[in-house]
# Entry
Amino acid sequence: MNSQKETLTFREILVSTLAAAFGVQTRKNMERDFSQGEVLQFLASGMIFTIVFVVGMIACVNYVLS
# Structure
C-alpha cells in the first residue's frame, strides 16, 4: 500500500486562507485542512495574505486621501 498522504492543492490552500480571514469555514474543509495540510503552507499563505491586505489598504487610503 502507498502510505503517502494527499497534499492540498494551491487553490485549496488559497480558499482555506481566505475563508479563515473572513471567519467562514465548513467543518468538512477544516478537517481536511488539519488532516492533509502542512503547517508551513498555511503560515506562508496567511503571512502573504496579510501583507497583501495591508499594502492594499494602505494603497486605498492613499488613493482616497490624494
